[in-house]
């Protein structure tokens, strides 16, 4: 007998609903039906694909709720149903898929809160990608238990409360996107412990207090976007010594103080410095010409 173990129908211009019979392909380990025009809801029968390791259905017109039965796919490592019209809350069963490494549910119409014990069941998770939804509630405090997490994207939701203090325990974190929510409080100072961080995007929230000094110790950071908040105080000098920094967006805050005279000595890679609508004083640094990549 020949068994179907992989089904790749991505970008084929297929239309209609996802056939429930797909659940009969019990030896399937890879399923890709992304970039098509499938509509309707996800069939419950997909839960029968117990050997499935990767499922991609991104960029379709799939609607309805995510069936909690998907949580039965305990071999699944890669789940991508981004860019659809899914509604309802993310089933708790999804957060108990012990093999899951990639969770991409961005650009849907998902609502509800993230579970408080978010990381208890998905210990292997490397990427949580949920922006452009309607998620509410707080960022779970036990986020630090997702210790392999490299990418956390929760931007453009309706999240409230503070950024958890223990976020600095995510030593593998490379990208943190929390922009366009209603987050309050200070930027956690121990973010400086996330030494691998390359992107920090916290813009368009209600964050207050000063920019933590330790941000300047993030030696791999390329993009720093803290604009459109209520941040006060001066810009920490160490930020102007991050040699990898390419984009600095700190506009629309209440920042004070002056820019350092040797502004460009340490940030040689910088392509964009955006600081409008603050209370900065002093002169424009004379060594601006040293920022040769500035666009």
From TrEMBL:
InterPro entries: Leu-rich_rpt, Leu-rich_rpt_typical-subtyp, LRR_dom_sf, LRRC69/RLP. It holds the Pfam family LRR_8. Keywords: Glycoprotein, Leucine-rich repeat, Membrane, Repeat, Signal. It is found in: Membrane. One of its GO terms (cellular component) is membrane. Gene3D superfamilies: Ribonuclease Inhibitor. It comes from the Eukaryota. Signal peptide: none annotated. This is Guanylate cyclase.
């Amino acid at each position: 007998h020949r068994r179907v173990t992989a089904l790749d129908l991505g970008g084929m211009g297929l239309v209609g609903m996802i056939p429930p019979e797909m659940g009969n392909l019990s030896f399937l380990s890879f399923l890709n039906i992304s970039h098509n025009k499938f509509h309707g809801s996800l069939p419950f029968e997909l839960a029968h694909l117990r050997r499935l390791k990767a499922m991609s259905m991104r960029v379709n017109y799939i609607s309805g709720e995510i069936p909690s039965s998907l949580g039965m796919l305990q071999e699944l490592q890669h789940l991508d149903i981004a860019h659809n019209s899914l509604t309802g809350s993310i089933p708790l069963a999804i957060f108990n898929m012990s093999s899951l490494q990639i969770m991409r549910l961005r650009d849907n119409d998902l609502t509800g809160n993230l579970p408080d014990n978010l990381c208890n069941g998905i210990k292997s998770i490397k990427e949580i990608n949920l922006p452009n939804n309607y998620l509410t509630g707080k960022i779970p405090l036990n986020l630090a238990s997702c210790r392999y997490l490299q990418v956390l994207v929760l931007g453009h939701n309706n999240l409230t409360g503070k950024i958890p203090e223990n976020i600095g325990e995510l030593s593998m974190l490379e990208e943190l996107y929390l922009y366009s929510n209603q987050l309050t409080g200070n930027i956690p100072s121990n973010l400086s412990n996330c030494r691998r961080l390359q992107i920090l995007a916290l813009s368009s929230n209600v964050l207050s207090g000063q920019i933590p000094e330790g941000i300047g110790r993030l030696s791999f950071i390329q993009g720093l976007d803290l604009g459109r908040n209520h941040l006060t105080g001066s810009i920490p000098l160490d930020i102007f010594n991050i040699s990898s920094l390419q984009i600095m967006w700190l506009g629309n805050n209440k920042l004070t103080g002056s820019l350092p005279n040797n502004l460009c000595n340490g940030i040689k890679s910088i392509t964009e410095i955006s600081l409008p609508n603050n209370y900065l004083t002093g002169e424009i640094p004379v060594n601006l010409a040293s920022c040769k990549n500035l666009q």
